[in-house]
Amino acid sequence: MDNSKTSASGSQITSLALRSFRTYERLDVELRPGLTVFCGPNGIGKTNLIEALAMACSGASPRTSSEFRVIRSGSSFARIAAEVIIDGRQHERVVRIEAGAGKRLEIDRSVIRSVDEFASSLPAVSFLPERLLVVRGAPARRRALLDRCVARMMPRSAADFRKYVSAMAQRNNLLRRAKGGAEVRTQIQPWTEQMVEAGTA
Predict the structure, then answer these.
(1) Which range is least confidently modeled, 12-26, 55-69, 166-180?
(2) Rounded distance, CA 126 to CA 98, Å?
């Protein structure tokens, strides 16, 4: 991580506090301006630290779709808090994941309902070994990455995109199960209309 100069959005992380996150019961890190390097033996928790930084920016784990896995064994929650400077102003970003209660995102103690909205205020790119699957894996992974990028660049369009994808899934499911004919056209018409509405919003 290079904090030597601000990015295009003028942002930098100045501190990170972890509670019950992965292998860390408690960790407080101050990040000074300049290049930051985390080094140490295998298994010490370097990747976990990078994951926490990524989650403080994006609100989502770059390593797992089941984020309850980041909760430290024996604990009921995980908490990430980061102090950041964006365009000269200091902000606090908090990600809390609680077993049985889900995920809570906050910026300056205000609850943020959307991951896309949370991520759009502090864009970041994380590169982990798992990211190679985007290049080497199925095309669906690349499409999903592009979808996330668009959603974060245009958070207001994210809700319409989700509606479009949901309607398309319902429509395709009906087409797979149906035998054809006028009945099928009647059944898929509402979903087609929803796709058109969301796609042209």
Answers:
(1) 166-180
(2) 24
* pLDDT value for 6: 42
* Token duo for residue 33: 């301006």
Q: Rg of the chain's alpha carbons, rounded to an integer?
A: 20
Give Cβ neighbours of residue 110 (< 8 Å, ≥ 6 apart). Answer: none
Q: Which amino acid is at 11?
A: S
- Cβ pair 104, 26 in contact under 8 A: no
Span 31-77, pLDDT tens digits = 988 788 999 999 999 999 999 999 999 999 988 889 999 999 999 99
Report the distance separating Cα 133 and Cα 137, nearest Å. Answer: 5
In the chain, the amino acid numbered 114 is: S
- Rounded to whole angstroms, how far apart are CA atoms 125 and 12? 13
CA atoms of 49 and 22, how far apart (whole Å): 9
**Structural tokens at position 29:** 């890190």
Contact 69, 76 (CB under 8 A): no
Q: What is the pLDDT of residues 156-166, one digit of tens each?
A: 777 787 788 88
Both structure tokens of 96 = 């809390």
Q: Write down how long the chain is.
A: 201
